[in-house]
Design brief:
3 helices, 108 residues, two-stranded parallel ribbon, 4 strands, Glutaredoxin, 27% strand, alpha+beta
Length: 108
């Protein structure tokens, strides 16, 4: 999932997301969060902000920082938050995507 700590939509759903993640902890469902925002423009979205958000909400899954925006450029999430389901086939591939209407995203 693509999340941005500064985003009001992400802030709104974060407690429910944490509860959902905890409900599926220890199951076959793996989760990963990615922030690909420019930390100079959004300091809260820098690695320290991701760690703080993860600690405060009790995220057990990795929360990664896409500093170069290469992951975002390749997958083109239209807004934050964006959730995708991936399958472990021969290679990772997106099989479904759900976008909760958030702010549109531009890439540098």
């Amino acid at each position: 999932m693509f999340l941005s700590p500064h985003c009001p939509y992400v802030k709104h759903i974060a407690p429910g997301l944490a509860a959902l993640a905890n409900e599926y902890s220890g199951t076959d469902l793996d989760m990963v969060a990615i922030s690909s925002n420019d930390a100079d423009q959004y300091p809260e979205d820098a690695p320290d902000g991701l760690r703080l958000m993860a600690r405060e909400l009790g995220f057990w899954f990795p929360y990664c920082y896409d500093e170069t925006q290469q992951v975002a450029k390749r997958t083109r999430p239209p807004a934050r938050p964006t959730f995708s389901c991936l399958t472990r086939a021969a290679s990772w591939s997106i099989v479904a995507s759900l976008t909760v209407h958030g702010r549109r995203t531009t890439y540098r």
